[in-house]
Design a protein that fits this description.
By secondary structure, the protein is an alpha+beta fold. The chain has seven helices and nine strands. The chain has two domains: about 210 residues, no CATH class; about 50 residues. Helices cover about 55% and strands about 20% of the residues. Strand 8 and strand 9 form a beta hairpin. It is globular, with a radius of gyration of 26 Å. The relative contact order is 0.11.
């Protein structure tokens, strides 16, 4: 074996050893952090941690809630998130909503018309978050001033109505696991509870927001709900448009993914063929 080949083997083995040790250390540290975070969450919501699913079922402000710790991979690295969900008791039909930080990606999608951003007339909130939702009047009713202030206090978070996992839940996602300070998780649970409570009463609030007209003779008139029917039809159209827009965006994302994977495979094949050719 030549000196050059031996050097390459030593470097490869050394690198593999360093990577292995690093993975073991990181994994053990993350396991301890997960256990501490589950214990803290269980104490807040009054539930027993389930270490197999990294989750806790409990109650917050009289609402059944779920706290789950997840790890999401993104290319060569992974991130930790805390997923909070609250039960509504029935499926959400009045609104589709997602609130997330206004990153360059989302801002670009809004400019291209691939994503609808509902402006709430709150400059600070409108600048900090992209509010993708429909119908617009339902979104504005749901995200009242008190809820907007509470969301801003959380900072970076992701809210969905309904949850992607269940039409009978609302969801809030925080970045990271909170193993020491209960304050961030407590604030997030407060936001989740208010969001769930507001979602439950939203259909009735939407009805009251459109007054009934009176038709017929004075003092003997009958209520006319034509305006309410028109408002319902408008809301249904806006919901259908948002669902169609999301479907189009998902199809576009799949095409881009296929293209990227194809290019990566092509480059890898070219590199392997080049190496084989060089060794002949």
């Amino acid at each position: 074996m030549s000196t050059a080949v031996l050097l390459v083997v030593v470097i490869a083995v050394g690198t593999l050893a360093v990577v292995t040790v690093t993975i073991v250390v990181v994994t053990r540290g993350r396991a301890r952090q997960r256990g501490d975070a589950l214990q803290l969450a269980g104490g807040l919501v009054g539930g027993l941690p389930d270490r197999d699913t990294a989750s806790v079922h409990g109650v917050w402000q009289d609402l059944p809630v779920l706290v789950q710790l997840v790890v999401r991979s993104n290319g060569s690295y992974s991130e930790t998130f805390t997923v909070l969900e609250a039960e509504l008791g029935s499926a959400v039909r009045a609104v589709l909503l997602r609130v997330r930080p206004a990153s360059a990606l989302e801002v670009g999608q809004v400019r291209r018309g691939d994503l609808t951003d509902v402006l709430l007339g709150d400059p600070g909130f409108d600048a900090a978050y992209v509010v993708e939702g429909a119908p617009a009047d339902a979104v504005r009713l749901l995200l009242d001033a008190e809820l907007r202030v509470a969301i801003l206090a959380l900072g970076e978070c992701d809210l969905r109505v309904p949850s992607p996992d269940s039409e009978a839940r609302v969801q809030l996602v925080l970045r990271g696991w909170h193993a020491r300070d209960p304050a961030p998780l407590s604030r997030a649970l407060d936001v989740l509870a208010r969001l769930a409570t507001r979602t439950r009463v939203l259909p009735a609030e939407l009805e009251r927001a459109v007054p009934l007209d009176q038709v017929g003779a004075p003092y003997r008139g009958a209520p006319d709900d034509a305006a309410r029917k028109a408002a319902r039809a408008t809301r249904e159209r806006e919901l259908a448009e948002l669902m169609a827009q999301r479907g189009q965006r998902a199809r576009s994302d799949r095409r881009i993914l296929i293209l990227v994977v194809g290019v990566a495979l092509g480059l890898t094949a070219a590199a392997i063929l080049g190496t084989v050719w060089a060794l002949r």
